[in-house]
């Protein structure tokens, strides 16, 4: 369960409701596994607020935590998520290259699509450095080269085109387009507010990815 609130006082009120509900229904929250994170605006230091407690115990404050497989940080940057995905991709590729080295080209391509193109929650990646973005892209390209036994410095765009496999930019565009489509078809009140606001930062980023990806693909 996740509670979100713009102020510490508001969060304390929500937790008080949780305490009262638990007392009425005989429930016990696991305070040791409950954590609090304060999202910081760039260039601003969060003000000291009242102590935030659950069932009489002060909650531990952390700078990042993993929620549904996605790393959320206090500065709202996705660099840690990129690094997690890059490492996971390297592990999966090494496993495929080791276990299926003697398989046919068609089998290797099928395995690569199944194990190396997931990029879980990539449609939510918005704030990151170009360095971490390029590191994941290079890891993706090298993973395909390793699995297929291709030269290290062969053209990435050529090898993907010849194999009929989406490159990194195409995957990100498809994931974000799918996410945008689901948001636009949703009847959830919060998502409706996003889809009706072209000025939304996430919406602008999705559009930017398609424009930037098309340019990168054109110039490769």
TrEMBL record:
Name assigned to this protein: Reverse transcriptase
Highest rank taxon of the organism: Eukaryota
Lineage of source species: Eukaryota, Metazoa, Ecdysozoa, Arthropoda, Hexapoda
């Amino acid at each position: 369960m996740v509670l979100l609130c713009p102020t510490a006082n508001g969060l304390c009120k929500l937790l008080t409701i949780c305490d009262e509900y638990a007392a009425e229904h005989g429930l016990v929250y696991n305070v040791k596994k409950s954590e609090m994170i304060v999202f910081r605006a760039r260039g601003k230091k969060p003000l000291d607020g009242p102590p935030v407690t659950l069932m009489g115990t002060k909650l531990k404050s952390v700078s990042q935590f993993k929620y549904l497989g996605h790393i959320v940080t206090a500065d709202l940057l996705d660099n840690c998520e990129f690094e997690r995905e890059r490492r996971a991709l390297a592990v999966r590729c090494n496993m495929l290259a080791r276990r299926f080295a003697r398989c046919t080209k068609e089998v290797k391509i099928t395995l690569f699509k199944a194990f190396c193109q997931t990029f879980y929650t990539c449609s939510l990646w918005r704030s990151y450095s170009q360095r971490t973005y390029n590191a994941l892209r290079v890891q993706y390209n090298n993973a395909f080269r390793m699995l297929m036994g291709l030269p290290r410095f062969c053209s990435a765009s050529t090898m993907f085109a010849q194999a009929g496999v989406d490159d990194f930019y195409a995957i990100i565009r498809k994931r974000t387009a799918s996410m945008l489509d689901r948001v636009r078809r949703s009847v959830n009140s919060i998502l409706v507010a996003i889809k009706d606001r072209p000025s939304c930062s996430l919406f602008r980023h999705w559009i930017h990815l398609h424009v930037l990806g098309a340019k990168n693909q054109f110039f490769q």
